[in-house]
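Q: Give me the 3D complex with CO-5-methoxybenzimidazolylcobamide.
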Amino acid sequence: MDLLKDISNNLQRGDDEKVAALTGQAIAAKVPPKQILDDGLIAGMTVVGMKFKAHDIFLPDVLLAAKAMYAGLNLLKPLLVKEDIPAVGKVVLGSVEGDLHDIGKNLVGIMLKGAGFEIIDLGNDVPPERFVDAAVKENASVIGMSALLTTTMSNMKKVVDMVNERGLTDKIKTIVGGAPVTSEYAGEIGADAYAFDGISAVDRIKQLLGLS
Ligand code: B1M
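A: Here is the predicted complex, encoded as structure tokens.
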């Protein structure tokens, strides 16, 4: 669809105003929000990632693309989250220490909220003990960690180890995700689950809590 291609192209150019306007048009034209997200915004960001890796574009371009991504995402958010549904469980969510990438983590949060979970979002660059302390304080049953860098992935293990060391494994389950993370890696570090994207995070967390 041309409109979705336009969203992708303008996101790649970092034009947040155009992305917001086109996302608004797509919503008005009743394009399903998940399609706008996948075929417009995420499609554009995937190209940005490839161009960045190939040194065709540079960090400031990626920052502008991220700003444009949020311009669209903010309009989609209310459509992806159903309001007023009773919470089915509490999830502490964050990007691990050293990691400033938060778009994917925020998307996962939106999907979980849409499925009725209460989200305690700790933001990005979250030290291990903050994850665990927040889960205990908030009486959350799940800690969700996101990492986009191969250099920060190992901080997920620190959180899993801390949950074990503090004897909290019966009360708190851990789930990990993010572009470089795999289910094998999740198994290696002893996390309870891995999810590829927001939708599978919902499924995996429901399974962990015996809700499905
Ligand atoms: Co960065 N960056 N970046 N970056 N950046 C990557 C990750 C990189 C792959 C780009 C590349 O080289 N192709 C590369 C990492 C290489 C590696 O580690 N092997 C990279 C690099 C190198 C860096 C810097 C080091 C660059 C530098 O400074 N020289 C630097 C590091 C900063 C830091 O974190 N300390 C950096 C900085 C940045 C920006 C700040 C400019 C910006 C982030 C802005 C922001 O997030 N607010 C940025 C961006 C935008 C990217 C790319 C282009 C796009 C990431 C994104 O938002 N994707 C990225 C390339 C890429 O991934 N293709 C790249 C869209 C998002 C919807 O997908 O985050 O994968 P994603 O989330 C998905 C799934 O992974 C999953 O669900 C989401 C929805 O489908 N998921 C989970 C995520 N978390 C989950 C948790 C779960 C379950 C599923 O359970 C809890």
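A quick observation: The longest strand covers residues 89-95.
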